[in-house]
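Assemble and predict.
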Amino acid sequence: MEEVYSEAPKTCKIAKARPETISFLLAFSKSYEVATYKNLKFERTLN
Amino acid sequence: MELQIDDSVLVKSYVGGDEKALEVLINRHNQKITSFIYSKVLDRDITEDIFQDTFIKVIKTLKRGSYSEEGKFLPWVMRIAHNLIIDHFRKNKRMPKFEGSEDFNIFSVIRDEKLNAEKQMIKNQIDSDLSVLIEELPDDQREVLIMRIYKDMSFKEIAENTGVSINTALGRMRYALINLRKIVQRNNIVLTN
């Protein structure tokens, strides 16, 4: 039998980001706020 | 036919406080953005990290009100992802990481020479057993054995320190080892790692 030396094709195994990543982002978005005070912007993340 | 709300409308609603709009936007472009990142970094975990960082930037920019509707939403997000990919490669260039591929693992070639936790415990046990056995030896033999093995002294140095000839020191060492073996056999002690 002939040896196959060629590299295994790099197939893309993922199509989408994991659901955990998405739910983290949505939770982050809900907790993240920007408050404005006299032309100043303050970021805050609620826990 | 499903009615698709335009990205710009969703962005406006999100900026206006509609969190659901973000979910729609993320789900709509998830595949395109993930595939784009993966095609560059070829690593699932790094892809997830970059995807997450991309959207954190998107969220921050939108909530700060710094997003201007000059271009389209997707190209803008892609540009952010692209910049983060470049950052990732820059960081890795400074500190390269070699992980190997699926059919070759670098750790099959490089080994950690240190004993694992179990072997280290066994070694400690043997060392402590041995120190008890050494106590059983006659004084002159024990003295030579400790100087040779534990203090790493040469037989010349041992001879000088104990005031005997090198041959006597060698003889004491030989008898120390013979007697140790006898004690081990007599007591059925197993000293192996």
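The interface with chain B takes residues 8, 10, 12-18, 21-22, 24-26, 28-30, 32-34, 41, 43 of chain A (CB under 8 Å).
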